[in-house]
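Researcher: Please generate the 3D structure of the following complex. Treat every line as part of one assembly.
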Amino acid sequence: MIAKKNFNSRLIVGTGKYKSMTECAKAIKLSAAEIVTVAVRRVNITDKKKPLLMDYIDPRKITYLPNTAGCFNSKEALRTLRLAREIGGWKLVKLEVLGDKKNLFPEMIETLKSTEILSKEGFKVMVYCNDDPLMAKRLENVGACAIMPLAAPIGSGLGILNKVNLKIIRKQTKLPLIVDAGLGQASDASIAMELGCDGVLVNTAIAKAKNPFGMALAFKNAVIAGRQSYLSGRIEKLLMGKPSSPTEGII
Amino acid sequence: MKKIKKIKIKVNGKVNIINKGIKLSNLIKRLKIPIKKVAIELNQEIIEKKNIDRVVLKKNDQIEIVHFIGGG
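Model: Done. Output below.
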Protein backbone atom coordinates (compact mmCIF):
# COMPACT_ATOMS: atom_id res chain seq x y z
CA MET A 1 0.00 0.00 0.00
CA ILE A 2 1.43 3.33 -1.11
CA ALA A 3 -0.32 6.64 -0.36
CA LYS A 4 -3.45 4.74 0.64
CA LYS A 5 -3.60 2.84 -2.63
CA ASN A 6 -3.24 -0.94 -2.76
CA PHE A 7 -1.02 -2.62 -5.29
CA ASN A 8 -0.73 -6.36 -5.86
CA SER A 9 2.83 -6.33 -7.13
CA ARG A 10 5.78 -5.35 -4.96
CA LEU A 11 7.96 -4.74 -7.99
CA ILE A 12 8.31 -1.28 -9.50
CA VAL A 13 10.16 -1.07 -12.79
CA GLY A 14 11.83 1.73 -14.70
CA THR A 15 11.07 2.41 -18.35
CA GLY A 16 14.50 3.68 -19.39
CA LYS A 17 17.38 2.13 -21.33
CA TYR A 18 15.29 -0.32 -23.40
CA LYS A 19 16.09 -0.87 -27.07
CA SER A 20 12.56 0.06 -28.07
CA MET A 21 9.18 0.98 -26.65
CA THR A 22 7.85 -2.42 -27.69
CA GLU A 23 10.58 -4.18 -25.74
CA CYS A 24 9.94 -1.96 -22.74
CA ALA A 25 6.17 -2.60 -22.80
CA LYS A 26 6.65 -6.37 -23.09
CA ALA A 27 9.17 -6.51 -20.24
CA ILE A 28 6.82 -4.52 -18.01
CA LYS A 29 3.99 -6.91 -18.79
CA LEU A 30 6.15 -9.91 -17.91
CA SER A 31 7.34 -8.30 -14.68
CA ALA A 32 3.68 -7.83 -13.64
CA ALA A 33 4.65 -4.45 -12.17
CA GLU A 34 1.78 -2.06 -11.58
CA ILE A 35 3.91 1.03 -11.12
CA VAL A 36 6.51 2.27 -13.60
CA THR A 37 8.87 5.20 -13.28
CA VAL A 38 8.97 7.75 -16.07
CA ALA A 39 11.07 10.83 -16.78
CA VAL A 40 9.94 14.32 -17.78
CA ARG A 41 11.68 15.65 -20.87
CA ARG A 42 11.22 18.10 -23.73
CA VAL A 43 8.87 17.06 -26.54
CA ASN A 44 10.73 16.65 -29.81
CA ILE A 45 9.03 19.36 -31.82
CA THR A 46 10.86 18.67 -35.06
CA ASP A 47 10.39 14.91 -35.28
CA LYS A 48 6.74 14.11 -34.65
CA LYS A 49 7.12 10.48 -35.64
CA LYS A 50 9.04 9.60 -32.50
CA PRO A 51 6.98 7.04 -30.54
CA LEU A 52 5.32 8.27 -27.34
CA LEU A 53 5.58 6.32 -24.12
CA MET A 54 1.88 6.81 -23.40
CA ASP A 55 1.00 5.04 -26.65
CA TYR A 56 2.80 1.91 -25.46
CA ILE A 57 2.12 1.93 -21.72
CA ASP A 58 -1.41 2.96 -20.85
CA PRO A 59 -1.39 5.28 -17.82
CA ARG A 60 -4.95 4.20 -17.03
CA LYS A 61 -3.76 0.61 -16.51
CA ILE A 62 -0.26 1.14 -15.12
CA THR A 63 0.50 3.80 -12.52
CA TYR A 64 3.04 6.29 -13.83
CA LEU A 65 5.53 7.41 -11.23
CA PRO A 66 7.19 10.57 -12.57
CA ASN A 67 10.79 10.97 -11.44
CA THR A 68 13.24 13.83 -11.22
CA ALA A 69 16.19 11.98 -12.70
CA GLY A 70 18.85 14.39 -13.85
CA CYS A 71 17.96 17.04 -11.27
CA PHE A 72 20.83 18.26 -9.13
CA ASN A 73 19.05 20.68 -6.84
CA SER A 74 15.73 21.30 -5.17
CA LYS A 75 14.67 24.00 -7.65
CA GLU A 76 15.08 21.70 -10.67
CA ALA A 77 13.30 18.84 -8.93
CA LEU A 78 10.33 20.98 -7.91
CA ARG A 79 10.03 22.42 -11.41
CA THR A 80 10.07 18.94 -12.94
CA LEU A 81 7.43 17.47 -10.63
CA ARG A 82 5.11 20.44 -10.92
CA LEU A 83 5.28 19.97 -14.69
CA ALA A 84 4.61 16.25 -14.25
CA ARG A 85 1.52 17.07 -12.21
CA GLU A 86 0.34 19.43 -14.93
CA ILE A 87 0.61 16.73 -17.63
CA GLY A 88 -2.25 14.82 -16.11
CA GLY A 89 -2.71 15.27 -12.41
CA TRP A 90 0.12 13.05 -11.16
CA LYS A 91 0.59 13.47 -7.45
CA LEU A 92 2.42 10.27 -6.62
CA VAL A 93 6.02 11.05 -7.56
CA LYS A 94 9.55 9.80 -7.15
CA LEU A 95 11.92 12.44 -5.87
CA GLU A 96 15.53 11.95 -6.84
CA VAL A 97 17.98 14.80 -6.35
CA LEU A 98 21.47 13.76 -7.30
CA GLY A 99 24.68 14.98 -5.72
CA ASP A 100 27.32 14.38 -8.32
CA LYS A 101 27.41 13.15 -11.87
CA LYS A 102 29.96 10.43 -11.33
CA ASN A 103 28.47 8.11 -8.73
CA LEU A 104 24.91 9.51 -8.81
CA PHE A 105 24.55 9.47 -5.06
CA PRO A 106 21.59 11.42 -3.72
CA GLU A 107 22.14 14.97 -2.46
CA MET A 108 20.31 14.50 0.82
CA ILE A 109 20.08 18.12 2.01
CA GLU A 110 18.35 19.17 -1.21
CA THR A 111 16.27 15.98 -1.14
CA LEU A 112 15.05 16.73 2.37
CA LYS A 113 14.17 20.32 1.47
CA SER A 114 12.27 19.22 -1.62
CA THR A 115 10.38 16.47 0.23
CA GLU A 116 9.05 19.00 2.71
CA ILE A 117 7.95 21.52 0.05
CA LEU A 118 6.35 18.87 -2.19
CA SER A 119 4.48 17.23 0.69
CA LYS A 120 3.06 20.61 1.68
CA GLU A 121 1.93 21.13 -1.91
CA GLY A 122 -0.06 17.91 -1.73
CA PHE A 123 2.34 15.60 -3.56
CA LYS A 124 2.77 12.02 -2.38
CA VAL A 125 6.54 11.78 -2.40
CA MET A 126 8.45 8.53 -2.69
CA VAL A 127 12.01 9.49 -1.89
CA TYR A 128 15.20 8.07 -3.33
CA CYS A 129 17.77 8.36 -0.58
CA ASN A 130 20.95 7.04 0.96
CA ASP A 131 20.76 3.95 3.13
CA ASP A 132 21.16 6.20 6.16
CA PRO A 133 18.70 5.50 9.00
CA LEU A 134 18.93 9.04 10.41
CA MET A 135 18.16 10.66 7.08
CA ALA A 136 15.36 8.16 6.48
CA LYS A 137 13.81 9.24 9.76
CA ARG A 138 14.06 12.91 8.83
CA LEU A 139 12.43 12.26 5.47
CA GLU A 140 9.60 10.52 7.26
CA ASN A 141 9.21 13.49 9.61
CA VAL A 142 8.81 15.96 6.73
CA GLY A 143 6.11 13.92 5.01
CA ALA A 144 7.66 11.32 2.66
CA CYS A 145 5.13 8.65 1.67
CA ALA A 146 7.77 5.99 0.97
CA ILE A 147 11.47 5.61 1.76
CA MET A 148 13.56 4.37 -1.15
CA PRO A 149 17.17 3.77 -0.14
CA LEU A 150 19.72 2.74 -2.72
CA ALA A 151 21.21 -0.74 -2.70
CA ALA A 152 24.26 0.57 -4.58
CA PRO A 153 24.93 3.41 -7.08
CA ILE A 154 22.30 3.77 -9.83
CA GLY A 155 22.92 1.40 -12.72
CA SER A 156 25.93 -0.22 -11.02
CA GLY A 157 24.39 -3.66 -10.57
CA LEU A 158 26.44 -4.19 -7.41
CA GLY A 159 23.51 -5.50 -5.39
CA ILE A 160 22.78 -4.72 -1.75
CA LEU A 161 25.92 -3.34 -0.13
CA ASN A 162 24.66 -2.56 3.35
CA LYS A 163 22.13 -5.06 4.63
CA VAL A 164 22.48 -3.86 8.21
CA ASN A 165 21.40 -0.31 7.43
CA LEU A 166 18.40 -1.53 5.48
CA LYS A 167 17.40 -3.70 8.44
CA ILE A 168 17.70 -0.77 10.81
CA ILE A 169 15.61 1.44 8.53
CA ARG A 170 13.05 -1.37 8.33
CA LYS A 171 12.87 -1.54 12.11
CA GLN A 172 12.35 2.18 12.59
CA THR A 173 9.75 2.92 9.92
CA LYS A 174 6.24 1.79 9.14
CA LEU A 175 6.32 3.62 5.81
CA PRO A 176 6.71 1.55 2.65
CA LEU A 177 10.40 0.73 2.31
CA ILE A 178 11.49 0.16 -1.26
CA VAL A 179 15.02 -0.61 -2.34
CA ASP A 180 15.80 1.57 -5.32
CA ALA A 181 18.85 1.44 -7.56
CA GLY A 182 21.90 -0.75 -7.81
CA LEU A 183 20.37 -4.21 -8.10
CA GLY A 184 22.09 -6.50 -10.59
CA GLN A 185 20.19 -9.74 -10.69
CA ALA A 186 16.98 -11.32 -9.47
CA SER A 187 18.48 -12.77 -6.27
CA ASP A 188 19.29 -9.21 -5.13
CA ALA A 189 15.57 -8.53 -5.10
CA SER A 190 14.95 -11.64 -3.01
CA ILE A 191 17.53 -10.47 -0.49
CA ALA A 192 15.89 -7.04 -0.26
CA MET A 193 12.53 -8.66 0.38
CA GLU A 194 14.00 -11.06 2.94
CA LEU A 195 15.37 -8.07 4.82
CA GLY A 196 11.78 -6.96 5.24
CA CYS A 197 11.54 -4.37 2.49
CA ASP A 198 8.06 -3.77 1.07
CA GLY A 199 9.22 -3.68 -2.52
CA VAL A 200 12.02 -3.07 -4.98
CA LEU A 201 12.53 -0.71 -7.89
CA VAL A 202 14.55 -2.00 -10.83
CA ASN A 203 15.43 -0.60 -14.21
CA THR A 204 18.90 -1.31 -15.59
CA ALA A 205 19.12 -4.92 -14.35
CA ILE A 206 16.10 -5.78 -16.50
CA ALA A 207 16.52 -3.37 -19.41
CA LYS A 208 20.20 -4.20 -19.98
CA ALA A 209 20.06 -7.94 -19.28
CA LYS A 210 20.95 -10.13 -22.26
CA ASN A 211 17.35 -11.25 -22.22
CA PRO A 212 15.21 -8.49 -20.68
CA PHE A 213 12.04 -10.58 -20.87
CA GLY A 214 13.60 -13.49 -19.00
CA MET A 215 15.03 -11.10 -16.39
CA ALA A 216 11.67 -9.33 -15.97
CA LEU A 217 10.07 -12.66 -15.18
CA ALA A 218 12.96 -13.60 -12.88
CA PHE A 219 12.57 -10.37 -10.89
CA LYS A 220 8.84 -10.91 -10.61
CA ASN A 221 9.38 -14.36 -9.13
CA ALA A 222 12.32 -13.27 -6.95
CA VAL A 223 10.24 -10.57 -5.29
CA ILE A 224 7.44 -13.04 -4.60
CA ALA A 225 9.88 -15.65 -3.28
CA GLY A 226 11.72 -13.16 -1.09
CA ARG A 227 8.54 -11.82 0.44
CA GLN A 228 7.22 -15.33 1.11
CA SER A 229 10.55 -16.26 2.69
CA TYR A 230 10.49 -13.18 4.92
CA LEU A 231 6.94 -13.87 6.08
CA SER A 232 7.67 -17.52 6.72
CA GLY A 233 10.47 -16.80 9.21
CA ARG A 234 13.94 -18.11 8.57
CA ILE A 235 15.71 -20.61 10.86
CA GLU A 236 18.37 -19.55 13.29
CA LYS A 237 21.96 -19.49 12.07
CA LEU A 238 24.22 -22.03 13.82
CA LEU A 239 27.97 -22.29 13.83
CA MET A 240 27.97 -26.10 13.80
CA GLY A 241 26.05 -28.69 11.78
CA LYS A 242 22.85 -30.34 12.95
CA PRO A 243 21.77 -33.59 11.26
CA SER A 244 18.51 -33.50 9.33
CA SER A 245 17.96 -37.29 9.77
CA PRO A 246 17.23 -38.80 13.21
CA THR A 247 20.29 -40.12 15.01
CA GLU A 248 18.19 -42.74 16.81
CA GLY A 249 17.83 -46.19 15.26
CA ILE A 250 20.99 -45.99 13.18
CA ILE A 251 22.00 -49.52 12.17
CA MET B 1 -1.21 45.15 -47.96
CA LYS B 2 -0.27 45.53 -44.33
CA LYS B 3 2.87 43.70 -43.41
CA ILE B 4 2.51 41.36 -40.42
CA LYS B 5 5.19 41.89 -37.83
CA LYS B 6 7.26 38.87 -36.89
CA ILE B 7 8.67 38.10 -33.47
CA LYS B 8 11.33 35.72 -32.23
CA ILE B 9 10.51 33.18 -29.50
CA LYS B 10 12.18 30.03 -28.21
CA VAL B 11 10.40 26.68 -28.05
CA ASN B 12 12.25 23.89 -26.25
CA GLY B 13 15.48 25.78 -26.70
CA LYS B 14 15.04 26.34 -30.45
CA VAL B 15 14.39 29.72 -32.06
CA ASN B 16 11.00 30.08 -33.77
CA ILE B 17 9.86 33.07 -35.80
CA ILE B 18 6.14 33.64 -35.46
CA ASN B 19 3.63 36.32 -36.36
CA LYS B 20 3.03 38.94 -33.72
CA GLY B 21 -0.23 38.47 -31.87
CA ILE B 22 -0.28 34.67 -32.05
CA LYS B 23 -1.72 32.88 -29.04
CA LEU B 24 -0.05 30.00 -27.21
CA SER B 25 -2.93 27.75 -28.26
CA ASN B 26 -2.29 28.56 -31.94
CA LEU B 27 1.37 27.64 -31.57
CA ILE B 28 0.54 24.32 -29.87
CA LYS B 29 -1.90 23.54 -32.67
CA ARG B 30 0.58 24.48 -35.36
CA LEU B 31 3.27 22.26 -33.83
CA LYS B 32 0.73 19.40 -33.68
CA ILE B 33 1.39 18.80 -29.98
CA PRO B 34 -0.94 16.25 -28.33
CA ILE B 35 -2.11 18.63 -25.61
CA LYS B 36 -3.38 15.92 -23.25
CA LYS B 37 0.05 14.33 -23.03
CA VAL B 38 2.16 17.41 -22.29
CA ALA B 39 2.75 20.25 -19.85
CA ILE B 40 3.62 23.77 -20.93
CA GLU B 41 5.83 26.36 -19.33
CA LEU B 42 6.11 29.98 -20.39
CA ASN B 43 9.16 31.82 -19.06
CA GLN B 44 9.56 29.21 -16.29
CA GLU B 45 5.93 29.46 -15.20
CA ILE B 46 3.48 26.65 -15.78
CA ILE B 47 0.52 27.61 -17.96
CA GLU B 48 -2.55 25.55 -17.19
CA LYS B 49 -3.82 23.93 -20.34
CA LYS B 50 -7.24 25.47 -20.01
CA ASN B 51 -5.63 28.90 -20.14
CA ILE B 52 -3.47 28.56 -23.28
CA ASP B 53 -6.10 30.35 -25.33
CA ARG B 54 -5.69 33.46 -23.20
CA VAL B 55 -1.93 33.81 -23.61
CA VAL B 56 -0.66 36.03 -26.43
CA LEU B 57 3.00 35.36 -27.17
CA LYS B 58 5.50 38.15 -26.83
CA LYS B 59 8.98 38.80 -28.20
CA ASN B 60 11.68 36.61 -26.58
CA ASP B 61 9.17 34.36 -24.80
CA GLN B 62 10.67 31.04 -23.76
CA ILE B 63 8.34 28.09 -24.02
CA GLU B 64 9.01 24.60 -22.74
CA ILE B 65 6.77 21.72 -23.76
CA VAL B 66 7.47 18.48 -21.89
CA HIS B 67 6.09 14.96 -21.76
CA PHE B 68 6.90 11.59 -20.24
CA ILE B 69 9.63 9.40 -21.65
CA GLY B 70 11.30 6.21 -20.44
CA GLY B 71 13.25 6.63 -17.21
CA GLY B 72 14.37 4.86 -14.07
